[in-house]
Amino acid sequence: MWRSRFKTAFLAVSVTIMAASLVVYPEESFEASIRGLDMWWEIVFPSLLPFFIISEMLIGFGIVKFIGVLLEPLMRPLFRVPGVGGFVWAMGMASGFPAGAKLTARLRQEKQLSRIEAERLVSFTNSSNPLFIFGAVSVGFFKNAHLGIILALSHYLGNICVGLVMRFYGRNDKEEKEQKKGKSKFPIRTALIALHRTRVNDNRPIGKLLGDAVTSSIQTLLMIGGFIILFSVINKILYHLHVTAFLAKLFEIILKTLSLPESLSVPLISGLFEITQGSQMTSQVQDASLMQLAIITSFILAFSGFSVQAQVASILAQTDIRFKPFFFARILQGLFASFFTVILWKMIYERFYNPEQPSHAIPVFLFEEGTWLHSFYQLISQIGPIITLFFLCLYIVILARRLYVQK
Fold it and tell me: In this structure, are residues 308 and 354 in contact, taking their beta carbons and an 8 Å threshold?
């Protein structure tokens, strides 16, 4: 009982302080909200929307079920999740946060995953996409495209390790055991049958399916935009209230124990709330080596920040999937990613990339300045608002038409 009362009091006091801070720091709050809006308007919405719409279409047409049957022999032994988890994993890495959570929740609603399997899957299928790691962090913040190799490898290797650890979570899942029965000797034939049955059972016309995909995706992105703006403001207010500095004093002890500069504490605290600002502040620290900056950045990217975690929690709240395993996995991935950064630094970065001998550098997935991938990132930043505005108008038209039909 006292826990519930303490929680109520804590939440009430916290919200009151935040409301008062908005009045005390109106200019700073406005600038932070504009910064969050710009990020959502220019980058997040146009980059995530196509993945969300296509994913909904693939699920509706049964293609995800087809892929799931084929990938069952790989995903089940490694991660103890159905084969459809392979599709979620791939889409999560390609599109970034929080696509893995949205697709996992969608498949749980379709009864293609048990609750334990969904909690395992969501733990390792949420990650930063390569465009953000190489474009925004490595090139944009650090001005070093080669650093993206270490950050990406550490990030995705950490994801795999989390998946391998989480396979031991919920070992007595009865629903999972029931789904293991009935294996076929002809997986392609079984997959085709599953594809056809899924499409027939969906029973929605193509126009209705496309409309549902667009509206569902935009609703999710509107929610994501709200969280991005909210946590951008919270992060700024906590800084002006000196809460960030107070927490940084506690983290200085941990960093000192790990032989890391104490000046990294403030960027680390900011990164725990919002990964973009945390990564940018880390890149601006002067009294730390590049390897030390990479370690902190890897942890920030893997932990994903309370902003992304709040987005995931909101998506999972629509199902019976619990948030605690996801939160535990974020801490675990942060530790794994930092560890891999230390291991891979001498093996890859110092061995193949030397600023004095650029001819020995290994390729960075075509993300050097002037390449098509770097140009694509700049193009997204320029035309992103146009794409966002177009689909928001389309969403309004579809929603208005459906409300009119219901009347």
Answer: no
pLDDT of residue 123: 92
CB 273 within 8 A of CB 306: yes
- Angle between the 206-240 and 2-24 helix axes, to the nearest 10 degrees? 80
3-state helix, strand, coil in the chain (%, to 5): 80, 0, 20
Distances (CA, A) of 370 to 150, 374, 377: 21, 6, 11
Q: Which of 349, 374, 372 is nearest to 362 (CA)?
A: 349
- Nearest one of 120, 102, 155 to 275, comparing CA atoms: 155
CA 335 to chain centre: 17
pLDDT higher than 80, residue 178: no
Q: Give the angle subtended at the CA of 299 by the CAs of 373 and 130, to the nearest 5°.
A: 15
DSSP assignment string, 126-156: ----HIIIIIIIIIIISS-TTHHHHHHHHHH
Say which amino acid occupies 13: V
pTM of this structure: 0.79
Q: Is the dihedral of CA 45, 46, 48, 49 positive or negative?
A: positive
The model's confidence at residue 139, banded by pLDDT at 50, 70 and 90, is confident
CB 323 within 8 A of CB 109: no
Instruction: Please give the distance of CA 379 from its chain centroid, rounded to a whole number.
Output: 22
Spatial CA neighbour of 176 closest among 119, 99, 106, 92: 119
- Identify whether the C-beta of residue 367 lies closer than 8 Å to the C-beta of residue 142: no
Least Cα distance to 300 among 326, 277, 325, 279 occurs for 279
Two tokens at 197? 């049955």
Average pLDDT over every residue of 353-376: 50
